[in-house]
Design brief:
The chain is of the alpha+beta class. It is 41% helix and 18% strand. It is built from ten helices and seven strands. Strands 4-6-7-5 form a four-stranded mixed beta sheet. β2 and β3 form a beta hairpin. α2 packs parallel to α4, α4 packs across α5 and α4 packs across α9. It is globular and about 65 Å long. The termini are far apart.
């Protein structure tokens, strides 16, 4: 947006007084200050070695890139030894732990980078021909940026085999039927209770057709066209301590994998899975 100001005076000779100069320039200074707050600039000096759509990274490769960005990836990679998860599924939990460990740093390093790829409502993935047509454009990403600057660090998420089993059951159901949503097989609580018992709170997020785990979690945080930002609220919920993940290929979203992520405050896995 361009702003044009024209100052005129009946006095064609002589200079404006310093006080009048300040009075005339104050609105411009205020607008420039507000613009810097409302429209954060990408700090290229802190550029990440992690791109939002880097596909196919192993868990070790993802952790190494995060080390290069200055993250304590050995601490954050809580699912590294979960042999029931593949690398992408492990990376989903690691990506959650980035934003929970240091929300403000995540905002400055990754959300500002994401903002730089917008052209109107179109999101242009770097070095890729794919263009994401968003509903709200960059506004939710800007909103996320400022929200994360004010969020206190949260406890890390740890992997759960039982929750991962419930997530696998649902992602397979969605992909086999070519549908979306949280319904099916009796609903969230019924699905999870087939695999174990939970306490206080459970939740579920679903990401469709993501290029990478990093991309999937970032897009859930931005929550384009989800006006209560419910996916973001789940990821930043301090009452959640465990997560289970499963991925599959959804026929409606061939660009990448779709992920179901189940969360709980507490979960105790059954010795034997009950049948639906």
């Amino acid at each position: 947006m361009a702003l044009f100001f024209q100052f005129s005076s009946n006095h064609t000779s002589g200079k404006l007084s310093p006080l009048r100069n300040f009075v005339l320039l104050f609105p411009l200074i205020l607008l420039i200050s507000c613009a810097s707050i409302l429209f954060p600039r990408v700090d290229k000096s802190g550029a990440s070695s992690m791109r939002v759509a880097d596909p196919g990274l192993s868990n070790e490769e993802y952790a190494q890139r995060l080390f290069a960005d200055g993250w304590p990836a050995d601490i954050l990679n809580t699912a590294a030894n979960a042999d029931y998860l593949d690398d992408d599924e492990k990376n989903i939990i690691l990506a959650h732990n980035l934003v929970r460990y240091d929300p403000a740093r995540y905002a400055r390093m990754y959300v500002t980078e994401y903002l730089s790829y917008f052209q109107g409502n179109r999101f242009h993935y770097p070095e890729m021909q794919t263009i994401l047509l968003t509903k709200e454009g960059p506004d939710p990403a800007r909103e996320l940026y400022f929200e994360l600057l004010g969020v206190n660090p949260l406890e890390l998420l740890y992997p759960s085999k039982g929750l991962s089993g419930a997530a696998k059951s649902h992602v397979q159901y969605l992909c086999e039927h070519g549908i979306r949503g949280h319904r099916g097989q009796g609903g969230l609580s019924v699905r999870i209770e087939r695999f174990g018992t939970w306490d206080k709170i459970i939740a579920e997020n679903i990401a469709y057709g993501s290029f990478s785990a990093h991309d999937a979690v970032l897009y859930l945080l931005i929550d384009d066209h989800v006006f209560d930002r419910s996916h973001r609220k789940i990821i930043l919920n301090p009452g959640l301590h465990l997560a289970g993940v499963a991925k599959d290929k959804h026929p409606l979203y061939p660009t990448g994998y779709s992920y179901v992520i189940n969360y709980a405050f507490y979960f105790n896995k059954h010795d034997k899975i009950t049948q639906p």
